[in-house]
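Minutes, project check-in
Item: structure for the 317-residue chain
Input as provided by the requester:
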Amino acid sequence: MSNLRTIKERIFKAKDFVIACHRNPDGDCIGSLLALGLGLKTLKKRVIMVSQDGVPLSYRGLPGANKITRRLGKVPDMAITVDCNSKEMVGRPFKTIRKAKYLLEIDHHEFREPYGNMFLIDTKAASVGEMVYKLLYYLRIGITKEIAENILTSIIVETNSFRLPTVKPATFNICYKLQKTGVDFHKISETVYWSKTKQAVILSGICMSKLEFSRNGQIAWSIVSKKDFSSVKGRDEDVDPVANDILAIKAIKIAVLFREKSQNILRVSLRAKGGINVASLAYKYGGGGHFDSAGCQITNTKKEIRGFIEAAKRLLR
């Protein structure tokens, strides 16, 4: 981890910032991106917030979300990435931000491939939103209601609504302080977990109907095809919760969701419980993540899928 004082000095010295999140963004990185961006703007900094794949529908109502862009122009004085464990996760914007004099990584993944020259890493943090909150506090940037809404979204999403073992007393203490700004916790929670599109519900049913199980019943997997998506005019984000839903099945220890991205590529979402390290499996295939939540891409062939499931079985041993 870089010295916080050094980070503070360089943030105050820089005028132009680019903040980037990872490909296929979730609520943690979008919330963190927006909270940090809004915070730096209170210091009269010029801030560009970028997401290669835009903003998922669920998070477009967050304060500042309409300011997120997909492309970058000039090289900033300082670049910051949130929730990215490798330069590949940043995607296309990395070509520009790598040229910045200072590149700060803010992340909490256990498996990482460093790419910046400044680091704010805490693998014990429940979310990157927590880390952004602490950084803003250290910079003496006041937490507005808008910033609070973004940080709270990050925490709720990344902790699966406070259900994961990464939740600590500090997590609840931060949420308590965020709620004092007047932010509507119920509205955020309802938007994230209790509001689904028709397409999401139908696709979830399709995925569940295709479930396959290992012989011992501890691994379950499903494949959602491009044809499935097009049949209901669904989006990739519509099936984001499905891996967690599969993991909720009694006796399941590893859940795998394959999404057909093209004729040649499958995007893989991995979830686990019982201390099983699925990030190590994702890492072997060029991906990464957390011990119990990870992702990667594999070749879209039956042989590759079988090989991947066999590798998942070895984790149980």
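Outcome recorded: The CA atoms of residues 187 and 203 lie 25 Å apart.
No further action items on this chain.
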